[in-house]
């Protein structure tokens, strides 16, 4: 059917655009202030949607336990707070959007590696090959730039983000079935908002230049990424296998690199293109041949 072609393409485009749009936003605002504002708005929107859905159904589901609420908030802290905070900070330090997307795209590889230790998972030979290819591709992209064009603080920051998104994803898999999706996203957004409020009050004095590019970037991140891409993701997960949906992520780094090359003149050399493709292919192999129980 047509949606099987259109929805994945729209999703990859929106998901990839988040890195480039963030690059625009941090030129007009401190990164944590922008994220605080973004998730404050997202929290309000998810809260209104949750109230509307519950009113429309004229029923309420059983409330999750305090432990599930606390763990869901921790997921929000990891996925939206530390992960996005690290990525936005790295972008504000000058790290290219394409490189940021490439590094965090290694999440399936890192999660699969941790699954061996935490869940006694067994990797297939093709998945091991995918992990090696992913690492080799990153080396191809980063090696010519280390010590030169890439800010080391940005690389360290986005690597912290990679660890956070991996931990948050593993935790979400553990508790995901114990709480309604809308309620889960509301709690996660509220936790992220609280996190950035603390950061802005103690570490980073918030500064925002309310110029049209910033407002457009903020609106895009809230409506098209946090709401639109998420809705498409949920539809695809419901209609397709999780492995098929996860495999779409391998398209994000090269698409982000192309958008950034057009919008920000970020250099895209032949070696870089090869590295992006090798890493994306490696991530694809890991996710495509994962069993349903493999993170």
Write a short abstract of this structure:
By secondary structure, the chain is mainly α.
Strand composition percent:
under 5%
- What is the β-strand count? 0
* Structural shape: globular
N- to C-terminal distance: 28 Å
- Helix fraction, binned, reads over 70%
Report on this model:
The protein is mostly helical. It has one domain. The chain is built from twelve helices and no strands. Helix 1 packs across helix 11, helix 2 crosses helix 9 and helix 3 crosses helix 8. It is globular.
Any key phrases for this structure?
single chain; 295 residues; mainly alpha; 12 helices
List the helices and strands and how they pair.
Blueprint lengths: L2 H23 L5 H27 L8 H27 L4 H8 L2 H12 L6 H18 L9 H24 L5 H22 L9 H28 L2 H6 L4 H13 L5 H19 L7
Helix pairs in contact: 1-4, 1-9, 1-11, 2-3, 2-8, 2-9, 3-7, 3-8, 4-11, 5-7, 6-12, 11-12
């Amino acid at each position: 059917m047509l949606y099987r072609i259109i929805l994945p393409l729209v999703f990859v485009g929106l998901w990839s655009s988040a890195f480039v749009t963030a690059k625009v936003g941090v030129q007009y605002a401190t990164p944590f202030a922008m994220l605080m504002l973004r998730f404050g708005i997202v929290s309000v929107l998810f809260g209104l949607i949750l109230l509307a859905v519950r009113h429309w159904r004229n029923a309420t589901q059983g409330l999750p336990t305090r432990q599930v609420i606390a763990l869901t908030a921790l997921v929000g802290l990891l996925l939206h707070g530390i992960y996005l905070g690290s990525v936005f900070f790295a972008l504000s330090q000058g790290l290219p959007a394409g490189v940021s997307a490439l590094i965090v795209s290694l999440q399936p590889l890192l999660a699969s590696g941790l699954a061996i230790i935490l869940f006694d998972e067994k990797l297939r030979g093709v998945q091991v090959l995918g992990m090696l290819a992913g690492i080799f591709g990153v080396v191809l992209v980063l090696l010519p730039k280390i010590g030169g064009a890439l800010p080391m603080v940005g690389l360290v920051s986005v690597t912290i983000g990679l660890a956070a998104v991996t931990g948050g994803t593993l935790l979400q898999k553990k508790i995901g079935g114990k709480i309604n999706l809308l309620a889960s996203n509301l709690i996660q957004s509220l936790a992220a908002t609280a996190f950035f409020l603390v950061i802005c009050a103690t570490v980073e004095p918030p500064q925002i230049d309310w110029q049209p590019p910033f407002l457009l970037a903020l609106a895009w991140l809230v409506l098209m990424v946090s709401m639109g891409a998420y809705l498409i993701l949920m539809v695809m997960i419901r209609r397709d296998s999780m492995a098929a949906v996860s495999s779409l992520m391998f398209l994000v780094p090269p698409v982000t690199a192309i958008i950034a090359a057009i919008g920000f003149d970020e250099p895209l050399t032949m070696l870089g293109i090869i590295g992006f493709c090798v890493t994306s292919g490696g991530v694809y192999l890991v996710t495509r041949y994962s069993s349903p129980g493999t993170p």
